[in-house]
Structures are given as C-alpha cells and as structure tokens.
Amino acid sequence: MTTSPLYDVLIVGAGLAGMRAAISAYEQGAKVAVLTKVHPVRSHSNAAQGGINAALTDRGDKWEDHAFETVKGSDYLGDQDAIEVLAREAGKDIITLEHMGVIFNRNEEGLLGTRRFGGQKRARTFFVSDFTGQALLHVLYEQIMQAKIPVYEEWFVTSLLKNDQGHCSGLVAFEIRSGKFSLFRAKTVIMASGGLGRVYEPSTNALICTGDGMALAYRAGAPLMDMEMVQYHPTTLKGKGLLITEAARGEGAYLLNKQGERFMERYAPTMLELASRDVVSRAEQIEINEGRGINGCVLLDCRHLGRSFIQERLGQIYAEAKTFANIDLAEEPLPIRPGMHYQMGGIKTDTEGRCWDPQGHWKGLPGLLAAGETACVSLHGANRLGANSLLDTVVFGRRAGQCAAEYAKTIPAPVISDSAVQADRQLIETLLARQGPGERAAALRLEMGTTMNRYVSVFREEDGLETARQHIQSLKARWSGIAIQDKGHVFNTGMIATLELGFMLDCAEAIIAGAITRTESRGAHFRTDYLDRDDEDWLKHILLYHQADAEPDIHYLPVRITQWQPQVRIY
Amino acid sequence: MKTTLRVRRFDPEADPPMGYVQEYRLETEPSETVLDGLIKVRETLDDSLALRCSCRGAICGSCGMRINGHAALACKTKVISVAPADGTIEVEPMHNMPVIKDLVTDMAPFWSKIRQIQPWLQPPGTAPKAEYTASPEAMTHLSGVMSCIMCGVCVSDCTVLEVDKTFVGPAALAKAYRFVADPRDAATLRRLNALNQPGGMWDCTRCMECIQVCPKGVAPMDRIMALRANGMAAKVPSTCGSRHAEVFTDIIKHKGILDEPMLAVRTFGLKHVGRLLGMVPMVLQSVFKGKVPKSGPLHRPIPGIHHIQRLFKRMRVKS
Ligand SMILES: Cc1cc2nc3c(=O)[nH]c(=O)nc-3n(C[C@H](O)[C@H](O)[C@H](O)COP(=O)(O)OP(=O)(O)OC[C@H]3O[C@@H](n4cnc5c(N)ncnc54)[C@H](O)[C@@H]3O)c2cc1C
Ligand code: FES
C-alpha cells in the first residue's frame, strides 16, 4: 500500500466543478490534487450542449431577474441567499471563462452572443454552438495542464476517511489500471463527482454518472438534501434516452402531439415550449397518457427553422437525430419523450461549499466540501432551469476551492490510520473470491433503473413509491450475491460496476425516502395523491442521514427566503 | 440480426501476458451500435472484456477502437453499417499506443504530445475588463477544431506515427492550429517556430487517413496544411518541408510538369549531398520498376504552359 503526499485540498472529480475548484484552490497557493475515475475530458460535463446562464449587467440585464426566474423555476424550494450569489457572480465567471480561452459564440459586434432557454424571459444563455460543456471542459483542462496541477487519472474512490475528531481527512482509492490501493491524506476533500443518472433506466446521463460521491459522503455522515427532486427533461430520444438539448426549443422548435397541435398552448399559454422543464415534461406525459402521443412519444418539430440554421446552431443534435433516430431534422419532426436527466438534490452544502455548518444548526461532516451536480446548495430547489447547472459548477466550484484552501491554512496536518484501506481492499478481495454462479451487477442495475423510472418519475404516488422502496431493499440484499467473472486486478470493469451499483442503491434509497416523506406536489416532485403545493407544511428541505442497516434518519431545514415570497407559479 | 464480434484481447495478468482473439455471438437490433454490442457482451456474456465507454453519444471520446481495420468510435458505428453478410465484425484496440488490457489503450503518450504544443491560450498583456472582442466568423471557424474530443482515433491510424514515434501527430497539430488561428492568442510566432522543428508540422505525409477516420469532422490534415501556410506566411525559417512546397510550386509554374530530380536537388540544396546520394537506390529502383516517365527524368516545359501560368496569375490576384 502507498500513501499520498499530504494535500491541503484533494478534489474528487475532474468535471467542470472539480477542475474549477482545483484552479481556484491553486490560485490561493494551496497544495492541490485532483482524483478522477475517468480522464478529465471524459467527464460527463462534456455532454452539456445548450449553454450557461448569466445576467451581464453591463448589457442591460439584471441579476435580480435571473435570480427571480431561478427562484420561481425552483418552485420556491431553492435557498434564495445561494441563488443571489449565483446570479450576482455569474457575469464575472463567464468573463473569466472567456479569458481562459472559451470560444463563446459572438454577435456582430464581436461581443458575447446569447440564446434563449426555458423558464426565462430574456436571452441570457451563453454558448459554444451546441457543445458548450465540451468547450468549457477542454478549456479548464488546458488550465490544469498549464498550472501542472497533479491529476490522478483513472483512480476510483472507495471511501472517505475521518480522523478521531470526526473530521474528513482524506480518502481511500485504487488505481484502475493496476488495482493497487492508496491512502490519500488531505486537510480538506472537495466532492465534485457529478450526478447519479444511472440510478434510472433510461437516462440522459453517461454510464459513469453513478452517484458515487453522494453515497460516499452519505456513508461518511454528511446529509443528503432534496433527493426526491429528480428532473425529467422534456426532450429525450426513445431507447437509450439520449438528450436533445433545450436549445432546440430555445431556437424556436415546436412540440406537437399526434394531431399536430402545439399542445403547450393549453399548459403554459405565455412561455409555451419554454416553460420550466417540470411543467413541459408533465404536459408531454399527460398527452402521451391520454392517447395523444405516438408510440409513447410526442414530436419535436424543427422544420420551420430551415436546414442551414439547424446545421449551424444545432449541428450536434442534427447529427444525433440522424445517427441515433435516423431522422433528418430539417425534413421530419423527431419523436421525443420526457427522460430522467438531473438530480437537483445532493450533498447538503452552504454557500461556500462546506458540508458542515460552522454555526452548528445542522450536523455535517467537517473537512468535506462539495460542488457541482453532486452538491445541493440549494440553487435548483424542486426544478432546475436549463443552463443553470454549468453555471452552478463554475460559481460554486470556484467558491468551494477558495474556501477549502483558506480553511486548510487554519488546521493542522491530520492523523489517520490505514485500517480503512485494509477494509476496502478486503471487500474487493471478497468480491473477487466469490465463485459463480451469482447474479450480475448489470442485471440488478437494470432492475433498479426500470423500477425507479416506473414508480419514482414524472408522476408519483404512495403505493408505487412503497413498491419501489421494497424492491430497492431486496436489491440491496441481493447485491452481496453478485459474482464477478473477471478475477484480475487490472482494469476490472466488472468490479467497478459492482461498486458503483452499491453506491447507486444507496442513492435510490435516499430518493425514495424523500419522495415518500414529501406529501405535496412541488416542481419535479408531483404526487398524484397530493396534487397541490403546500407551503404551510412543506416550504422546507428534507435532510437524510445514513444509518447502517436501517431507513435514513430524516431531518428538516427551513428554506432561506430573502426577497421573493412564494407565489402561484404560472408560465 | 446475428452478429459475431471477433475481439482482439490482451490479458496483462497472464504469465506471460497474452494476446488472443475471442469471438462473441449475439443478436443485435438494426439501430444498435458496435458499442451497444460490446456492452451487451460485457453485461450478459463476459464481464472480463475491458473497454472504455461513457457517453454513448460520440462526445466523451472514450470508445476509440479499430473496427474492421479502421479506427472509429464504437458508439458512433452502427453494426449494420460495418457488418458484412456473415455478420462478423473485427474489433481491436487502437494502434500507435500501448495496450493495457483488451480494448483499453494507454493514452499517456497521446497526452504528452498534446502537452508538448502548450495547449492553452496565451493572450497578450493583462486581460481587459470585459471579454476580448473577436469576430463571429473567427469563433465559428475555431469551433470546427474545438469540436475535437481527443479520442485518439486519428493518432491510431496515422501512417507517419507508425514509422516515426517522434511525430507530434494529427491531434496535437490540430490543437496547435486551434491556438494559432485564435485572434486572442499572442504566441503565434513562437508556436509556429516550435512546430517548424523535426517531428512537427512538416512531417505529415498527407495520407488523409486522419480526415477519413475523425468522428467529429475536425479534418486534422487540413489544419496541418493551414499551419504550414501560416508558417510560410509568417516567414518561419525554411525547412526541407517548406522548400519542398515552394520548389514544387515553382517547378510547376515554369514547366507545367513535375521535374523530380530538380525537386530533390533544390529542396535539399547542394549542402545535403549525402541525403541526395541516399536517394540513388530509390531512383534506380524506380527506373527498374518503370516509374520514370518515357520522356526521361529531365523535363522541358510542356506545350501550352502559358495556360498554367495564367492560372497562377489568376490565383495570385484572388489571394
Ligand atoms: C446530456 C446532458 C446535457 C446537459 N446540458 C446542460 C446545459 O446545456 N446546461 C447546463 O447548465 N447543464 C447541462 N447539463 C447538466 C450539467 O452538464 C451537469 O450537471 C454538470 O456538467 C455536472 O458537472 P460536475 O462537474 O458536477 O460533474 P461531472 O462533469 O459529471 O464530473 C464528475 C467527475 O467525478 C469523477 N468521479 C465520479 N465518481 C468517482 C469516483 N468514485 N472516484 C473518482 N472519481 C469519480 C468523474 O470521473 C468525473 O471526473 C446537462 C446534462 C446532461 C446529462
Ligand atoms: S462512449 Fe463517449 S465517445 Fe463513445
């Protein structure tokens, strides 16, 4: 076993949140390293197509408008102090990204150009064609290369470590290429491990989005918050669930039902196709359920935009529709349906990214910070606006990196024992030693995914959620019966799939616990047995604490309201 | 559809490490890709088959591999488009990089070449308060190169890298072009001078393989040619490569036909007698194989040369 050098800030994940955190901690003079299970540019942030929001106040936009639309989009569950930070600092962060080299789309004057996104009245989404996430991710990696920040590429984290005072002081990970374990010592750890899409089947998320960080933090004692808030995106392809960006509707595409009707006129007369995602997904699902769909889908119609416009501004999805659905967007409408896309909830943090409360109002895990999709600040509340997530990663990634670096200066080097490494190594050896015939991790994952997609999706109700809860319990029991054929230690992807499934089952359990607890309908969480939003009882967050072999321990936190009192939400 | 995936595997933990071919038979749907097939193998037949994959949508760059002899993204390759009548598809790891296990290659050499070109924006002086202004055309042009996902497919099939490991390669050169063509970058001359060295932009033999296989339409070879043009315009010191291009054009302009002995002598210059003599066996072989035109090696201008010269004139006016 090897032990790493002592880091001030050790970051798990090299997506946008992780790399932004690394750069800002490095700029503070901290000793930083990044650890990631895939090469940084393979991170899932590259999948973001549409863009990144910001109100540039020197162009006549107001950050308050962006903040209000985010609050309204969140169905008033987002914490308004955090949303204000996001909206106020967005402009500066966009300019920083541009200075780093991002080739943002320009207008005729050579200044940054924008497009419109859902849930917002003004065009304030900055973009690079329709591969914004990739363009950002590659530029941040360029900065990492320039700063020579060490990156442990293709290392897989198996647990977080705590010292005797219960302070997060490092982690255990193994190198995928060799299977060798190592103990990483760090004064602070930033979890930036992305989303959990694979808990569902299908999902727009990549195969690596398995909620590892949420489960790791949860198991180590940090609370998960708002986990019931799972976003279904209105435009995903049938089959594998690949995403068609909201930019398509932002650029003017229509949604049609079987009769060729623009049905959003009935659900959101003002914002139409650009209402909030929860609203549009629900409308589509109703159309489909009431027989006005086509083979379980409705239609996305781009034809009136014209071929050259589509190919220039939406080239990636033009190619995607062609390759994966065999449809020429310029000539035919594309069948799409709502599909699991994003986890609004995650590891509870404050506005500095801390997973603990220095004032002690809620119990957390000192020394651990989190940013990006794995974290819940909470900005997105019950429903995220399109193009706010990339913004979340850069604003709160930067803040977490800065806070971690400053905090690390104030604490002594941690003392930790290496017994945790032994435990994790033992677990792997036990997994590998198990002889077949056992169950396959992939089969269990598919059962989990289809169960979640059936009972914990756009519409939910008590009985279905209870069925899902029991099914996940039984899958947890069956997890220990998995047998891996590959007995080697080098690039054993069967073993990684098994570990990831373990993480996902914890996440699934938390999502269901939240969904059963919240007996109201708000944003993405729509209960057919509790149709209305209930501000009196439920204008609050649900915090879940992990308990070994028992249901999560449930706590509550009030929503932080600064200037926008809850109103009826109409688009 | 009955499909057989013939996979070239490699077990690094066998004693001694061992390469072998394994066939997997499975059913695939018309809409499915080679990656779908491999995932099916991994999930239902054999979880020891190692490969990288993540996005399934040709954006993360993980799943580069050789399919029926050409590098490609498995997630972008439909089974139907590559399977012959008997349904057997050959799958092997990418070339020009070491194999770790099965279809997983070691990308470290790939990335060290990317780092070699200093792949980060180097703007002049201190940054302005707002964004740098840049024309929409310039940014749209760059997005054609920025759409590179660093999958390694072009490097796998690069015919120069096959024989010369010092070549910086198509992916790194395309990335270099991304900065050279960026109006915000101030290191253009330094970059072009570095690329002018052996192993740099002049070592591409223009075989077009990278353009053929690139899954994102980046056309690395075209970017390399654009780098050369930029280099010559910026008057970086001449090399055999740039002289070859100049002399080639000059000969055509004056004779209308390629005069190869003249090309070699003028490219290398008389200083490099050694290199010229080194070509003698090749010349003899060409004669022997009938590759020297009947009119002999030395040419007079072709009849109608003035037509060609007119073309040159017109091109000069245009540019
Ligand atoms: C198809 C699609 C399109 C989208 N489009 C947009 C958009 O247009 N605008 C927008 O704002 N948002 C969009 N989103 C959402 C947004 O892309 C993501 O929420 C965001 O990029 C997440 O970034 P991240 O840095 O938190 O995580 P990621 O980029 O997912 O990175 C996670 C990192 O954690 C590492 N990691 C995970 N587990 C482990 C482990 N056990 N050990 C070691 N490392 C680990 C991974 O290797 C990876 O480097 C989109 C999402 C999808 C799925
Ligand atoms: S799986 Fe991402 S490029 Fe193929």
| Number of β-strand runs of chain B | 7
Distance between the termini of chain A: 57 Å
Q: Mind summarizing the main beta sheet of chain B?
A: 5 strands, mixed
Number of domains of chain A: 3
Beta-strand level of the residues of chain B, as a percent range?
Answer: 5-15%
Counting DSSP E segments of at least 2 residues, the number of strands of chain A comes to 20
Which percent band covers the strand fraction of chain A? Answer: 15-25%
* CATH fold field value of the largest domain in chain B: Fumarate Reductase Iron-sulfur Protein, Chain B, domain 2
- The CATH homologous superfamily of the largest domain in chain B is called Alpha-helical ferredoxin
Return the CATH topology of the largest domain in chain A: FAD/NAD(P)-binding domain
Q: How many distinct helices of chain A?
A: 16
Strand order of the largest sheet of chain B: 2-1-5-3-4
Structural class of chain B: alpha+beta
Write down the CATH class of the largest domain in chain B. Mainly Alpha
Overall 3D shape of chain B: globular
Number of domains of chain B: 3
Average pLDDT over all residues of chain B: 94
Our measurement of the CA-to-CA distance between the termini of chain B, rounded to an integer number of angstroms, reads: 54 Å
- By oligomeric state, this entry counts as heterodimer
Main sheet properties of chain A? 8 strands, mixed
Helix/strand-derived category of chain A reads: alpha/beta
Q: What does this 3D model show about the protein?
A:
The complex is a heterodimer of chains A (571) and B (319). Chain A has helices at residues 16-27, 63-73, 80-100, 132-147, 212-219, 247-250, 264-267, 277-289, 307-313, 315-325, 389-409, 419-433, 441-455, 462-479, 493-517, 535-538; strands at residues 2-3, 7-12, 32-36, 52-53, 114-115, 125-126, 151-153, 155-162, 168-175, 181-191, 224-225, 230-236, 254-256, 298-301, 334-343, 346-348, 368-370, 375-376, 540-545, 553-558. By secondary structure, chain A is an alpha/beta fold. Chain A has 3 domains: 2-229 and 344-410, FAD/NAD(P)-binding domain; 233-338, Flavocytochrome C3, Chain A, domain 1; 419-541, Methane Monooxygenase Hydroxylase, Chain G, domain 1 (Up-down Bundle). In chain A, the strands form 4 sheets. In chain A, strands 1, 2, 3, 7, 8, 9, 10 and 17 form an 8-stranded mixed sheet that branches. A 5-stranded mixed sheet of chain A has the order 18-16-11-19-20. In chain A, a hairpin with a 5-residue loop joins strand 9 (168-175) and strand 10. In chain A, helix 5 (212-219) packs across helix 15, helix 13 (441-455) runs antiparallel to helix 14 (462-479) and helix 14 (462-479) packs antiparallel against helix 15. Chain A starts with a strand and ends in a 13-residue tail after the last strand. Chain B has 319 residues and is an alpha+beta fold. Chain B is built from 15 helices and 7 strands. Chain B has helices at residues 34-45, 79-82, 108-116, 136-146, 153-156, 159-163, 170-180, 188-195, 209-213, 220-233, 240-255, 260-268, 273-278, 280-288, 305-318, and strands spanning 2-11, 18-27, 64-67, 70-73, 88-92, 99-101, 104-105. In chain B, the strands form 2 sheets. Chain B has a 5-stranded mixed sheet. In chain B, strands 6-7 form a two-stranded antiparallel sheet. At the A-B interface, helix 3, helix 4, helix 10, helix 13 and helix 15 of A face helix 1 and helix 4 of B. Residues 53-56, 58-63, 73, 75 of chain B line the site of FE2/S2 (inorganic) cluster (FES).
